[in-house]
From TrEMBL:
It comes from Halospeciosus flavus. Belongs to the CetZ family. This is Tubulin-like protein CetZ. The keyword Secreted does not apply. HAMAP family: CetZ. Involved in cell shape control. Residues 356-387 are annotated as: Disordered. GTP binds at residues 10-14, 109-111, 141, 168, 186. GO terms for biological process: regulation of cell shape. It comes from the Archaea. Keywords: Cell shape, Cytoplasm, GTP-binding, Nucleotide-binding. Residues 2-200 form the Tubulin/FtsZ GTPase domain. Its main location: cytoplasm.
């Protein structure tokens, strides 16, 4: 699948950087163009992989290159005022593009406020689907971050064709500070997305999968809006049984690996992906559509294992639209599974985010009204979108 990536704000830019790095390591091109947009000059300078010509500083007349200080309303206003500059920034030569992906930390200012406006603008100009990749703030970051994220997400969901969510708390090791975790979280995001979006693209090894998933199947899984979670599981291939690896290295897809071993490894990585490694905690039984993609050396990619895994996802998610496929990685010593749960309707994590956000908005309103409490109960329906 060929994507145009647009990183907005600090987190958005750094994640696009991580994706570019991953793409060049994996040698399977899936990024047609990568752009970074920010109101903070320093954040743009800190990027390593986004080409200089594709880094755009906006809002200079309002904030002088110093960022919006967490004010996502100001960021949304700047984006509205500078729509024509934004259009120029994203007017990259993008032939043969399957979709656009706008990446942002939803709890901050620039990415949170600008990304929904940008998605709205891209929808106006392009016929390809426009997706969001939204980073939810950690619970430790407090009410203002949750309020920003909930308001941004509300607007982004309305504008985008789908929003894939990553919870900053989901893959953090216990005791690790959030700042220390960013790099590893970004690497994990890039690893998962690279497997997903490489599906159907030819790697330099030119090995083709047995059941290839192409761009249209990913697009069909994401169609119709809503939010999505990504799961990932991997299992190391037992090197004592090197036959499969060797045949994989030689480019042969002859299954010289014991089929039961391959089926079991495939099933356990798919289960792991859904049960323990979702990018945002959610009720998997509320999934609208799903996609299972298994990667590994060709000899370990068992058609039977993938079909059984696909059926298991169908039963577990109770949704009837589950696509499955494989992606050969001849030199890998792992079997890995990416599971995309699209249009997930129930998530306690999102309910809790909305509740914290509603409290924070209530406190803000009380403060603005000189301490007068309105007496109305605060429900998530009272949360305002950004525009
Ligand atoms: P902006 O530059 O104003 O858009 O603000 P940020 O992008 O820094 O957004 C702040 C939110 O993004 C907070 O919830 C941070 O925890 C999160 N964040 C900041 N940098 C990173 C990063 O590199 N990776 C991840 N995963 N989250 C980040």
């Amino acid at each position: 699948m060929q994507l145009v990536l647009i990183g907005v704000g600090q987190a958005g830019g750094k994640i696009v950087d991580a994706l570019l790095q991953r793409e060049s390591a994996d040698k399977t091109p899936f990024i047609r163009e990568a752009v970074a947009i920010n109101t903070a000059e320093q954040d743009l300078r800190g990027l390593d992989h986004v080409p200089e010509a594709n880094r755009h500083l906006v809002g200079q007349s309002r904030v002088g290159g110093h960022g919006v200080g967490g004010d996502n309303e100001l960021a949304a206003e700047i984006a509205q005022d500078e729509r024509s500059e934004l259009v120029r920034a994203i007017d990259v030569p993008a032939t043969n593009v399957d979709a656009f992906l706008v990446v942002a930390g939803l709890g901050g200012g620039t990415g949170s406020g600008m990304s929904p406006v940008l998605v709205n603008e891209l929808q106006r100009i392009h016929t390809e689907p426009i997706y969001g990749l939204g980073i939810l703030p950690s619970e430790d970051e407090g009410g203002l971050y949750s309020l920003n994220a909930a308001r941004s997400l509300r607007t982004l969901r309305r504008e985008a064709d789908n929003v894939v969510l990553i919870d900053n708390d989901a893959w953090r090791s216990s005791g690790e500070s959030l700042g220390d975790a960013y790099e590893s979280i970004n690497r994990e995001i890039a690893r998962r997305l690279a497997v997903l979006f490489s599906a159907g693209e030819l790697s330099q090894s030119d090995t083709v999968g047995e059941s290839v998933l192409d761009a249209s199947e990913i697009i069909n899984t994401l169609r119709g809006g809503g939010v999505s979670a990504l799961g990932y599981g991997s299992g190391k291939i037992d090197t004592d049984d090197s036959s499969g690896r060797l045949s994989g290295l030689l480019g042969s897809s002859t299954p010289s690996v014991d089929e039961t071993t391959a089926v079991n490894l495939t099933m356990s990585t798919i289960r792991k992906a859904v049960r323990s490694q979702l990018s945002v905690p959610c009720d998997v039984a509320s999934t609208g559509r799903a996609l299972v993609l298994v990667s590994g050396p060709p000899a370990w990619l068992s058609r039977k294992g993938i079909e059984r895994g696909r059926q298991w996802v169908e039963e577990t998610t109770q949704c009837l639209e589950v696509r499955g496929g494989d992606y050969p990685l001849p030199e890998s010593d792992h079997v890995a599974a990416v599971v995309l749960l699209s249009d997930v309707k129930e998530s306690e994590r999102l309910d809790q985010l909305e509740a914290v956000a509603a409290d924070a908005q209530g406190e803000q309103e009380t403060h603005e009204n000189d301490g007068e409490v309105s007496g109305e109960s605060l429900s998530d329906d009272k949360l305002d979108g950004l525009f």
